[in-house]
């Protein structure tokens, strides 16, 4: 993915460049893992209190936009 994720950043000096929520060391992937395993956003936010709800929602909204504009495949 070439465009930046709003609410997240990547720094080679932090977790090897893994995208993390701004102001934290929490990987964005952690949120996706929670949702993939049917764990609610509220639980993620409780478990990672350094992640602001608005940042998490912003990342999810960004991913929705990417999916909405993805080319269809057969």
Q: Would you write up a description of this structure?
A:
The chain is mainly α and 74 residues long. It has one domain: Winged helix-like DNA-binding domain superfamily/Winged helix DNA-binding domain (Arc Repressor Mutant, subunit A), CATH 1.10.10. The chain is 43% helix and 5% strand. It contains 3 helices and 2 strands; from the N terminus they run E-E-H-H-H. The chain has helices at residues 28-36, 41-47, 53-68; strands at 8-9, 20-21. It has a two-stranded antiparallel sheet with strand order 1-2. It is globular, with a radius of gyration of 13 Å. The two termini are 22 Å apart. The relative contact order is 0.18. The mean pLDDT is 90.
What is the strand arrangement across the widest sheet?
A: 1-2
The tally of beta strands, per DSSP, is 2
Strand content: 5-15%
Radius of gyration using CA atoms only? 13 Å
Would you kindly provide a brief summary of this structure?
This protein has 74 residues and is mainly α. The protein has 3 helices and 2 strands; from the N terminus they run ββααα.
Write the layout of secondary structure elements.
Blueprint: E1 8-9, E2 20-21, H1 28-36, H2 41-47, H3 53-68
Antiparallel strand pairs: 1-2
Question: Which key phrases capture this entry?
Answer:
single chain; 74 residues; mainly alpha; Arc Repressor Mutant, subunit A; two-stranded antiparallel sheet; 5% strand
């Amino acid at each position: 993915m070439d465009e930046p994720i709003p609410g997240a950043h990547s720094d080679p000096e932090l977790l090897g460049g893994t995208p993390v929520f701004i102001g934290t060391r929490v990987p964005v992937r952690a949120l996706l893992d929670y949702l993939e395993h049917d764990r609610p956003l509220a639980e993620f936010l409780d478990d990672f209190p350094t992640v602001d709800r608005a940042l998490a929602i912003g990342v999810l909204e960004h991913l929705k936009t990417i999916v909405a504009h993805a080319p269809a495949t057969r």
